[in-house]
Design goal:
The protein is an alpha+beta fold and 166 residues long. It has a single domain, classed as Aminopeptidase, CATH 3.40.630.30. Helix content is 34%, strand content 24%. It has five helices and five strands, in the order βααβββαβαα. The protein has a five-stranded mixed β-sheet, sandwiched between helices. A hairpin with a 4-residue loop joins β3 and β4.
């Protein structure tokens, strides 16, 4: 039997002390998606929200030889039709130099285990329409796009106006 030349990936829950590593990976995702990085106020909220109870979100860190190489952030919603929780995967990101080495699969397996542990009826996420490599990865996992649903969004100024009307 041959030995693996790629060190194994360890996935664990993010702790408050991991905030700098998580923020660096979030910056990596922003760069990859050509989006602005979180500003100072958002970084402070993310750091604060890592430690609140009950948690506003859950985060996992993928590490190779103790070095962070990827992360996943998720939270739970509730399906009234299934009468079960839904795990929503907000972010999953692996540094481009680490892709193909098992970090993405390890993160998705850990997220799937969290969905099983909570008896979820669904595990859902969104993918940017140009991100073909991600779509191919998710298809290999057995996932499929929801063609009959279209995401919609209100931004803070819009929902503040809605809340104040009437």
């Amino acid at each position: 039997m041959g030995e693996s030349t790629v060190p194994t990936i360890a996935v664990r829950q993010v702790a408050a002390a991991d905030a700098p590593a998580l923020l660096a990976l979030i910056d990596g995702l922003a760069d990859y998606e050509d989006l602005p990085r979180p500003d100072a106020a958002a970084r402070a909220r993310l750091t604060r929200d890592l430690a609140v109870e009950p948690p506003l979100f859950r985060a996992l860190l993928a590490e190779r030889e103790g070095r962070p190489v990827g992360y996943a952030v998720y939270f739970f919603a509730y399906s009234t039709f299934l009468a079960r929780p839904t795990l929503y995967l907000e972010d999953v990101f692996v540094q481009p130099s680490e892709r193909g080495n098992g970090a993405g699969l390890a993160l998705m397996r850990a997220v799937a285990r969290a969905a099983v542990e909570r008896d979820c009826g669904r595990l859902e996420w969104s993918v940017l329409i140009w991100n073909r490599p991600a779509m191919a990865f998710y298809e290999r996992l057995g996932a499929a796009p929801l063609l009959e649903w279209q995401p919609w969004r209100l931004l803070p100024q819009q929902f503040a106006r809605l809340a104040a009307d009437g």
